[in-house]
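Let's do one together. I've listed all components of the complex below, 600 residues spread over two lines.
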Amino acid sequence: MNLQRYLEKRSQLVDRALTRVLPKRTSLPTKLDDAMRYSLFSGGKRIRPILALASGEAVGAPVAHIMPFACALEMIHSYSLVHDDLPAMDDDDLRRGQPTNHIVFGEAMAILAGDGLLTEAFRVMAEGALRLGKNPAAALRAVQEIAIGAGAMGMVGGQVADLEAEQKKPTRTLVDYIHTRKTAALLRASVRAGALVGGASPRQFARLDEYGAAIGLAFQVADDILDVEGETAKTGKRAGRDAELQKVTYPAAVGMKKAKARARELLHEALAALQSFPVAADPLREIAKFVVERAVPRAT
Amino acid sequence: MNLQRYLEKRSQLVDRALTRVLPKRTSLPTKLDDAMRYSLFSGGKRIRPILALASGEAVGAPVAHIMPFACALEMIHSYSLVHDDLPAMDDDDLRRGQPTNHIVFGEAMAILAGDGLLTEAFRVMAEGALRLGKNPAAALRAVQEIAIGAGAMGMVGGQVADLEAEQKKPTRTLVDYIHTRKTAALLRASVRAGALVGGASPRQFARLDEYGAAIGLAFQVADDILDVEGETAKTGKRAGRDAELQKVTYPAAVGMKKAKARARELLHEALAALQSFPVAADPLREIAKFVVERAVPRAT
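Okay, and this is what the predicted structure of the assembly comes out as:
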């Protein structure tokens, strides 16, 4: 399969669905509507929604059943970026090459736009599941998984640990603690949600979840590597930003060589988890390779 | 019935349930756990959860079925206060007579504690509904209603309008726009959620919803009146704070006399909506009277 083509098509599908679930609304204060849409439609890679869709695809589910959850995952990801960039947090003025939300709309509006995106993500899940009327219990389980992945035990907890870790000695234990929560938890929840709504058997769910855990962590390890070695033009953020903020990263904790080995090991784990799956899981396989190999090319 | 006793008992029940759904967790960064619990257990009146429970009670539902949603409503209310108090927003240092969250834990932690409370509210709903295993579709509808009431079309939108309105001329239209969103929407969603999960018929739901709309707005009108006439010791916030922040309030828009008349009119509407309900709706009736009469005593 041609992964780039697949990602492009899927990301277009997700964008169209996002436009449907979060249209321009005159019933909202204009500035709030603008601020929410500014960050949501700012050219993200839509990796979380695509993972959820691909996970459902692996167990034979139609895209339409997973889509509300896919949209919600992107809305949650988008809110987290808006809040992470705030002056009280990472104080970033550039995101994907564009001024961050609070630079354009002010701090109060950025906080509220984030709150709005997070809250409406749950509206979108509930609404979508009710409209389809398929398996409301599975939908509730997906809501639960996404809330856990995004909440205090997941992404929010990871962001707290990340902020607290600045200027701490970067150890392997600390970086694992942060990465599994801050980034991996929501990626893993994306895979879980797709599997649950897609009707995975308990056995299929367990294997897909292994895949999600591995790819979730691999994603952040690769990101750490790219922050050191990548180019601003390619990554959309200034190279060396992590070091500047004294962030705890994999290369800082274990060295670049071991970080790259870990990324490849995680890729291996992710692929092994999918061994019993048919070609329907090929997108998941190709995504895993892509995530790791954009930072650690096969030749390395 | 003795309303004070009822409110006390219900608020104790809610507190116990909140302790169960949000226990002290060593799996979280300690400071995040502390910050979330600091604001959640700071002596709120638990009016939203109590409304949800009373709405369920009015249609004969057991408290246990509504409780996860009741807890979630209080968590959402609590997050909204934490974010509203932030320096970028209302910049308040006192809430219910205690230092606000960001004063105690810092701005970054207050933002994240709010995000955590909001996200976990949805976990609590999904988890509770799955544990009870009753009617997952009704649970999804309640999730949807609560997300709408709390989101950009409801509370978040109202907060934006409220911030934008500072220093604007307070008109009746503007104050209605703000109040129906900022405060009434989540109160109304509380009543709706209780009715849905409680198994209300469409006819019962429509009447309870009328009640919720009236009482939701009455609550904020009463609050506006108390901000002018109340004492700090009784209301837990400094009297005259709204005027200081140049907030758009009912008394400012239409004058104190008309504001009081409007509050009594809304009480009348709320009670009329419940006319066909049996004594099981007495708590809803008494709550409505209490909400209005603490600001506008019957003699007025």
